[in-house]
Design a protein that fits this description.
The chain contains five helices and no strands. It has about 120 residues and is mainly alpha-helical. Helix 1 runs antiparallel to helix 3 and helix 4 packs antiparallel against helix 5. It is elongated and about 70 Å long.
Length: about 120
């Protein structure tokens, strides 16, 4: 019996982390705090860390959560692909067997079902 769980978890985690890193890395390119907000922080003698915590981080949260939403789907896809490649049991193997038996309802049920 082949234990594919560590490879599945590793591939799903790598897929999740890659998507989050790529999306969050693009945030500073499009994220410029309003000049009025920066003026308020300058008036209050705020440090650079305060600007990050009070302005940039809250503005980046929608992008971060969008990255998590997309990466959750990609992590599921990575886990299924890892099971297809090296598993003898699991959702990926069930989809592969149903597909090879031309059992379309079971194949589609496996695609939309998570454990």
């Amino acid at each position: 019996m082949n234990n594919v769980l560590p490879a599945t978890v590793l591939l799903a985690a790598a897929t999740l982390a890659w998507e989050v890193v790529v999306r969050v890395q693009q945030v500073p390119l499009y994220l410029v705090p309003p000049p009025a907000a920066r003026d308020v922080l300058a008036t209050l003698d705020a440090s650079g860390l305060d600007e990050i915590v009070l302005l940039r981080l809250p503005a980046a949260l929608p992008h971060l959560f969008a990255a998590f939403k997309v990466s959750a789907t990609l992590a599921l896809l990575g886990a299924v692909i890892a099971e297809w490649v090296g598993g003898d049991r699991g959702l990926g193997r069930a989809i592969l067997l149903a597909n090879s038996n031309l059992d379309t309802p079971t194949t589609l049920a496996g695609v939309v079902t998570w454990r």
